[in-house]
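Here is the promised in-class demo. Please do not try to memorize the tokens; focus on the logic of going from shape to residues.
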């Protein structure tokens, strides 16, 4: 993210107002005084390259505000707030909240607290308000599920010396550590289960192209179809792509159920898509596991309430969160690790067998 010069002069009225402050000054106060972004201010205090005009503006405002960066003697590279920011796209997703639930105990045991922020944005997309909030609190690192629009701002954060660990969604151009499910393996696992049960015409309900998790699960599923041999020659596959919502899952499953001849089995590649698929099956009056087979994704709760129990691919959410936290802790406390290349960690999922997939081999 490019850095633009801002005015360096802080007027006498603003200086007098600054000196009347009783609470300690923060990054946000410097931002208000200079008009610079919190990422640029953070970069300055963490030894990054900042334009001369911006350096002078920050220095002038800091002196007027009486700002003092809180540093531990053992951590001179950055202000040691002992806080990790967790930046999520939404607080409405159980998966997103599970990442927080898995990360917080690990980081707390290491002496770090967690500050949670989310930023769904409006019609124009995500903003940087939540990220600015975390930077304003001088977090020592950020664990995030980034969108493509977040990459420039997060790149600036990394350049400022603050480590970033990305979870679940891989974004090209973001030079950060990355932890996720082995999505290709998960998709293959679901498809192979259908092949093993003799299904010759199948459907897959998946999100639009360009979302890493959806692309990889689709790729793994298709690999399982193409690897079928002999009596298990590659089944016919019907692909339905749309928004990653339960509404689209419901609509897509209704479309599949109306096909003639109808596919005998379906893989819904996401929790919301699986939820919508189950709703459509219930509304159709067809019997799950007899008239139509289904493999879902995550949603242990769904598998417990469907009759018969739903077969699902599960991802190790707690392990993903702990691994992201472990890497973050290493980045914050190990100088050699901080200078090393970003890592990519993929953790294997598993298949929780229910009774929603009929065997057509008999």
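The designed amino acids, position by position:
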């Amino acid at each position: 993210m490019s850095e633009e010069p801002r005015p360096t002069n802080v007027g006498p009225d603003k200086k007098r107002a600054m000196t009347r402050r009783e609470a300690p000054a923060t990054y946000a106060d410097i931002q208000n005084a200079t008009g610079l972004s919190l990422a640029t201010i953070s970069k300055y205090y963490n030894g990054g390259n900042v334009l001369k005009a911006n350096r002078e503006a920050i220095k002038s405002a800091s002196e007027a505000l009486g700002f003092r960066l809180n540093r531990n003697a053992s951590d001179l590279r950055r202000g040691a707030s002992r806080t990790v920011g967790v930046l999520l796209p939404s607080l409405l997703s159980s998966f997103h909240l599970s990442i927080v639930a898995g990360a917080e105990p690990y980081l707390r045991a290491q002496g770090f607290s967690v500050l949670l922020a989310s930023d769904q944005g409006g019609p124009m997309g995500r903003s940087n308000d939540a990220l600015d909030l975390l930077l304003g609190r001088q977090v020592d690192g950020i664990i995030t599920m980034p969108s493509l629009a977040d990459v420039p701002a997060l790149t600036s954060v990394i350049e400022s010396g603050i480590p970033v660990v990305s979870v679940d969604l891989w974004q090209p151009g973001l030079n950060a550590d990355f932890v996720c499910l082995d999505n290709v393996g998960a998709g293959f696992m679901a498809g192979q289960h259908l092949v093993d049960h003799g299904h010759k015409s199948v459907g897959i309900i998946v999100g639009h192209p360009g979302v890493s998790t959806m692309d990889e699960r689709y790729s793994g599923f298709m690999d399982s179809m193409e690897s079928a041999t002999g009596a298990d020659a590659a089944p016919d596959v019907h692909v339905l792509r749309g928004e990653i919502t339960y509404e689209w899952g419901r609509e897509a499953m209704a479309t599949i159920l109306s096909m003639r001849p109808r596919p005998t089995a379906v893989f819904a590649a996401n929790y919301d898509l699986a939820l919508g698929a189950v709703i459509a099956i219930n509304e159709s009056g067809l019997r799950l596991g007899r008239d139509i087979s289904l493999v879902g994704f995550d949603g242990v709760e769904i598998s417990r309430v469907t009759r018969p129990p739903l077969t699902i691919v599960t991802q190790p959410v707690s392990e993903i969160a702990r691994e992201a936290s472990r890497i973050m802790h290493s980045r914050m406390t190990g100088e050699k690790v901080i200078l090393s290349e970003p890592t990519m960690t993929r953790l294997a999922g598993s298949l929780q067998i229910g009774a929603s997939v009929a065997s057509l081999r008999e």
